[in-house]
Amino acid sequence: MLDDKRWAGLVETRVKNPGLVQRAAEKRTQPGALVGEDGRLMLVAADHPARGALRAGEDPMAMGHRRRLVERLCVALSRPGVDGVLGTADILEDLLLLGALEEKVVIASMNRGGLAGTAFEIDDRFTACTAEAVQRMGWQGGKMLLRIDPEDPATAATLEASARAVDDLAARRMVAMVEPFISHRLDGRVRNDLSTDAVVRSCTVAAGLGGTSAYTWLKLPVVEEMERVLSATSLPVVLLGGEVSTDQAATFETWRRALAHPTARGLVVGRSLLFPPHGDVWQAVDSAVGLMR
Question: pTM for this structure?
């Protein structure tokens, strides 16, 4: 889908005509609504590289090849039932210039400052899209990662910044997608606590951010006793795809069970679909769509 000529044309546009990005955004055909008649939302995620997280499965640099990543995103977005994409400005603008975002829901990633593997990882500053940029580009909302480390004072600044972002998006009537975790440092690395109690706690904290929750959606991992997690909030929830699994059938089954709950409204999946164990992006995407549609 992305041959040498199209890729070279994309790079040439960035060199000689950068103003085309904004003009293309203004001309883009907007989606009719955030969700379809079935109330479901299926997004492909690709905001990992901006945080320095490039691993997919056994390949530590899988998402480090931009042309390959963008091509896989184009394949995923072309499949029936895929509503849109979540990513940082650089990736979204590549897709925009390639014409892959027509009538698609676009959620822009906002805080990517907590780079993977760094001493300041919990200090997850807002270094990507602002609410103003989301509105200017005609995207449908913004997403923020909220890791809560009880032993790291930097958590407080991220909480405050996330609350402001929720308010800024809500003031523009745009979706604020919050992805919360309770996190701890183990052997110098940040690890997310995926116990049911921890996910319930993170969910309740995230739901209370800002002066209104009217436009807030939660992005949550699928864990044991998911019924308890999804019963902890009245806000719409999209399920986080997570790491690439060698047993994709088992992963899909856990998603299917969770999607039966009324607050579960869709999937936001990145590496699991873009770099599936069998290598077939089409098949992986179609299988995931089939769980909802």
Answer: 0.96
